[in-house]
Structures are given as structure tokens and as C-alpha cells.
């Protein structure tokens, strides 16, 4: 019986939907059940993700049997020390199933480095290019032979991870990683990562949020078609496109079937997409936090809350004031209503994918499918202009389905349709510049803030994130106006200065930056800021490639940290 049928039966029997929502996956160790609950609520580790990333020392059946005996012996209230001993006996430390991997196509001195005029930035770009070797992972054969003993989803080909606590692949992160890898002339690494994603679509019908079973029922911003476009543009590997075009179509079909919503306006009905994950229980990787949060809402609302948190994670913006629209206090995470919003960025990503699919099919000689995707894009463009575009403000906005109106708060995602080429009026790039000016965004010298609200969530002020800089910078760069193009460059310069300054001090790249006070590693949210970092490195290389003849490090050499100073001096002298 499918879960959907099960849900209908329960609702027919008058049971609440709270009881009916299925778990994030079937595993009674990694996704739901008493073992997961007891271990995570005992908070044996500072980060809940650590436990669900451990592999098993023996079969799941044996682990569950031994746990059952332990639970019965202690009347289901196992002392913390006993739980610790149990985990040490039956689980292995995180990362045992992965081995470090140096990409075979990594080589010294990729061409794009020659475009960088500032010698300090060139030295730094070489350092970033080297970081790919530290972020490479390959799965051991045991993940394939004993998949039930690990939360990892098997990937045949090696891949680049974000870094820090994120030792598995992540879907939307990988787009900016791939852009960086292509500049580093590592097309075969990109092809392997693409193949992993295509294999996931063939197996599950979609790409999960990340490479763990507990992420299976939620996806991430859909950028697979764009990844394929970048790879084919770089390599002209049309055979690979031809072989996989059906799988790309299958992934877009997942969003059509499972994430579609109808919105009425002016007597007309429009079809758009949303993030929506109708699966229950706390997120396994943040279990204790989700359980604690659930205590702040009525018991009947807990399953809904947990489903909305998963939808927030699917959006990539976990978490943000963008989604905190449902409660009396918009600063509380319990106000989250992700699935009640029609997001500007999600629909722009899908609009772009439909255009790319139309182009792909034309290139492959299939005019019928090319026309079908052209029509889908045209329908979405009309829907976005009717529901999300605001003529007065000159930007697109998330639409609140419950309130029946746009959320007019500032988010960089409001300009995603510009980045995605999903507009019909060429003047929108210059309108976007005015929108940024009206919101005083250009007064921030260290990066574009994620929002103007400080909720303590990581996808809010004062954090700035690499992908959001890209959405705005490359969106503005589409303008024919020299002034708008100059602002795009200045925003790129600001971001590069922040990345370079922090790297000079810390010898590390970060997933996010705090731009409120001179540029520092970011904060807030559910875990400590992470080093690495895949998409930050990818975007830095993209900006250095695009504006390398103009960008400056903007830092006197003396302000470099002592650990970088000697190396940078020597390398600068050598380069000169």
C-alpha cells in the first residue's frame, strides 16, 4: 500500500493527519523509531548529525535486537552511559565508509589564472584551486555491498563535498562547485558528479537534498538541467546529453507531479511550484532540536511543523524569515510555513530549466519536445508575471498562498528570474538596480545581505552567502547599461575582498560570511559555521575568471596573517 493510500484510509477513519505522515525513510535506525529517539534525545553529541552519519558495525537487525533487549532491561529509559556504550559497540565513527580522493584530472595552473591581474588574488586563486583536492571523496565498496549498514546513498563516481560537517554531496551546492571545477579544467570530475545525480533520478525519481537516506524525501533547488548545460557547453559532449535527456525530463516531472500548486488571479488560474515535503517526524540530523521546537506548539500541530521544517530544508534556505510567516511571532522558527509560499527563486530555476530543455531537444532534433518545453516556459513566464512580479517595486516576490498576497520583504532571491533569464522585458535589469538602491543594499560594502531581518536564523541578516551574490551579480550583468554593469562589478569586488580578507586571516573559506562589521565568518542557525567550502570557492573562481583583469585584493600585504605572509611574498615576487 502506498503512503498516500494509507493517508487517505486513516483520514477516512477519522484519524488525524498527524498520525498518518510517513517517516523520512524506512530505516528504524536512521529515520525513525525508538533507537533514534533515545540516542538523539540523550544528546550524546553536540551535533545530532554526527549520530545519523555513523555506520553500523553489524546488521541493522542485530543492532535493533540488541537495542530492544537493552530498552526492555531498563524499562525503555536507558541511562546515558549505557546508551554511550551501546553506540560505541554497534556503530563506527563518522566517515569510515568514505575515503579521501584526489581528482585524477586536477592539474597545476589552469588557464583562467592568467586572467587575474592582481598578483595576490592570483596566488589566492591557486590556493582555492588546490582545495578541490581536500574536498574529494570516494565511497568504499562496502557502501554498495552493505547499503543497509550506512546512512549514505551509494554513488558510483567520486565527488566534491562542501566541507566541514558536510561530508556527503549536496544537490544545489554542487552547481557552484561544478562551475568552479570547469574553470579548474576538471570536466571529468564534473561528468562523474552529473552521472551520480542522473543515477539518483533513475532510482528515486528525483535528487535528494544530499547523499543520505534521511534526506531522501526532500529535494533541493532544481539545478540539474543547468549543470548539464554548463558541462555540455564546456566539453561539447552531446552524446552524454543525448543519452541522459530522458532522465533530465524525469527530474522536472517530479516537480510537476509533487510540487505544483494552482494560484488564482484576475479570474484566471496559474500553475506554479512550491517546496513541499509531506513527511513526518523530526529531521533525523536535527532530531533533538525539532523535538524541542515541537513542544512550543499544540500537539496536533507537531507533524505539520516537522513537515514545514523539511520543506524549508528542501528550499536550501534552512532557515529564514522568508518562511516564518505563519505564527504570531515572525521571529520564531515555529512560525515556519514554507509550503504556503510560492517562491520566486524555485519558479525561476524551473523556468530556466524548461528553456534549456527546449534548447537541448532542438539540438538533438526533437522538435515536438522542444516545442512542448517552450510552451511550458511561456506558461510559467505568464504565471510569474501575473503572480510574482511587482511592477511598482521592479522585482519578483514570493507569494503567500494563505494571505493571498506577495511577501514584499527584501531577499536576493527576489531577483533570481533576472539571473535565470526568465523575463520578457529587457529593462528589468535596470529596474533591479533601482530595487537594490531603494532597499539600500548597495550601502553594504562586504556583500549582499540575505535579508534585512535579524532573526538569528542563518539565512537572514547579517549573513551573506555565495549563491545569493551570484544571483544578483550575474543578473545585473545582463543589463546593456554601463552603470548597471559597473554595479555588478562593484558587488563582485566587495565579495572578493571579504573572501580574501577572511582567508588572509584564517587560511580558510567559509560557507557564509557575517557582513555587518567588516566581514567575518558567518553565524546563527543550527550549527557552527563550516569551513571548506564548495560553493564559496566555486563562486570566487567564477568572479575571478569574469572580472580578473579589474579585481583587486584591496588589502595591503602587511594585513595578511603571519601564516600566509611569507608564502604570499615569495609567490608575488616569483610571479612578478
What does this structure look like?
- The chain has 576 residues and is mainly α.
- It is built from 22 helices and 15 strands.
- The strands form 6 sheets. A 3-stranded antiparallel beta sheet has the order 3-4-5. The chain has a 3-stranded antiparallel beta sheet with strand order 8-11-12.
- The longest helix has 25 residues, at 482-506.
- The protein is globular and about 75 Å long.
- Percent of sequence in beta strands: 5-15%
The SS-based structural class is mainly alpha
Count the beta strands. 15
| Spatial ordering of strands, largest sheet | 3-4-5
Q: N-to-C terminal Cα separation, in Å?
A: 70 Å
Q: For the CA atoms, what is the radius of gyration?
A: 24 Å
Low-confidence stretches: 1-18, 556-576
Total helical segments: 22
- Give helix % range: 40-55%
Categorize the overall geometry.
globular
Biggest beta sheet summary: 3 strands, antiparallel
Mean pLDDT over the residues: 93
Describe how the helices and strands are arranged:
Blueprint: H1 3-12, H2 17-20, H3 34-41, H4 48-52, E1 55-56, H5 60-73, H6 80-90, E2 91-92, E3 98-100, H7 119-135, E4 136-139, H8 141-145, E5 159-160, H9 173-183, H10 187-204, H11 224-235, H12 238-258, E6 260-265, E7 268-273, H13 287-294, H14 302-314, E8 341-342, H15 344-363, H16 367-387, E9 389-390, E10 395-396, E11 399-400, E12 405-406, H17 416-419, H18 428-438, E13 463-465, H19 466-476, H20 482-506, E14 512-514, E15 520-521, H21 534-547, H22 562-575
Antiparallel strand pairs: 1-2, 3-4, 4-5, 6-7, 8-11, 9-10, 11-12, 13-14, 14-15
